Amino acid sequence: PVLVFHAEAILTNDSYLRLIGERYHLSYKIVRTDSRLVRSILTAHGFHEVHPNSNDYNLMWTGSHLKPYLLRSLTDIQKVNHFPRSYELTRKDRLYKNVSRMQLAHGFKTFHILPQTFILPTEYQDFCNTYSKDRGPWIVKPVASSRGRG
Predict the structure, then answer these.
(1) What's the confidence (pLDDT) of residue 53?
(2) pTM to 2 decimal places
(3) What is the DSSP string of 67-109?
(4) How confident is the model at residue 146 (pLDDT cuts 50, 70, 90)?
(5) The domain containing residue 97 runs over which residues?
(6) CA distance linking residue 122 with residue 66, whole number of Å
């Protein structure tokens, strides 16, 4: 089954939006993060919050990656907001490394999906050489620390 969440639910008191969560006694827990928006949206859709130590939940929203043993213990009706090794796609440095590996294996044309990228300080000299020919614009991203803050 798929549930569609509507952000505007937190602005209205629409009993129709709460119906599924309430009818099926859906629950969530939030672990190692303070996600007020997620909490508000889930509550507006009829989910009720359980204690972070509870194993009786349908959705676990966590601020960190989960250990493999925890993922293996999930039941069919339990979902989480993180997947194993998702950082391989969500961290820009890891995405670049993975796409570079695919370019070597399958050709640059097939995987020409990223702008020219340099991992500093390792590729600093390559960046300087390229920068002297093309002054920009360039985007600078800190490794593994952005989290939506720039």
Answers:
(1) 96
(2) 0.69
(3) PHHHHHT--TT-EES--TTTHHHHSHHHHHHHHHHHHHHH-TT
(4) low
(5) 87-133
(6) 30
